[in-house]
Design brief:
With 189 residues, the protein is mostly helical. Helices cover 55% and strands 4% of the residues.
Length: 189
């Protein structure tokens, strides 16, 4: 059968052999043994919330959930980086923060834009480490605070729908049915 052929359909083969529930039931060592095409599929399953990883797996596997989440949540990722830049973070720091937020979102089983402060705090504790020093706020050192902004709750995701007071905050509204064209949202800002 085509779907069972690992060469022509590695994703279907993995889903038939193991599946999301089977992966979640594996031991950490068995999960870490998953490699290649299967590992990429697992990353996608985790980022889309179809598999809930453990903190141990996310740390030990060094899975690039930030990269996968950037592709899946493209619009939010763009807003995230834009707002991080407005807050004074350099591009590398902003990207490191995105990767940390994406990892916590994967752990919580929610899209990055739906993370709450409580989920961020819990995820940070479960992952058992702070983000790299490069992700710290530029003002943190001068103010004597060495905790990254996202760990204090002054998170970029919470500010992604805000703009400086001199600008009108963007909001999404529904166009009237005659203009809507299938219920798409339009951004006003």
């Amino acid at each position: 059968m085509f779907a069972e052929n690992e060469v022509t359909s590695p994703a279907r083969s993995f889903l038939l052999r193991i599946g999301p529930d089977g992966f979640a039931a594996m031991t950490l060592d068995q999960q870490l043994a998953v490699w290649g095409h299967d590992r990429r599929l697992v990353a996608w399953l985790i980022v889309t919330g179809r598999v809930r990883p453990t903190a141990d797996y996310l740390v030990a596997s060094k899975l690039r959930v930030g990269k996968v989440a950037a592709g899946i949540y493209r619009a939010f990722h763009g807003r995230f980086l834009e707002v991080a830049g407005e807050l004074g973070f350099d591009p590398k720091s902003a990207e490191l923060q995105w990767w940390a937020v994406a990892k916590v979102a994967a752990l919580a089983g929610v899209p990055p834009e739906r993370l709450t402060k409580a989920q961020l705090d819990t995820g940070r504790e479960q992952l058992g480490r702070d983000p790299p020093a490069a992700s710290r706020s530029p003002a943190a050192g001068a103010a004597g605070h060495d905790t990254p902004a996202w760990c204090r709750g002054d998170v970029v995701p919470r500010r992604c729908d805000q703009r400086p007071a001199t600008q009108t905050p963007p909001r999404q509204v529904r166009d009237p049915p005659s203009v809507r064209g299938g219920g798409r949202l339009s951004t006003i800002g």
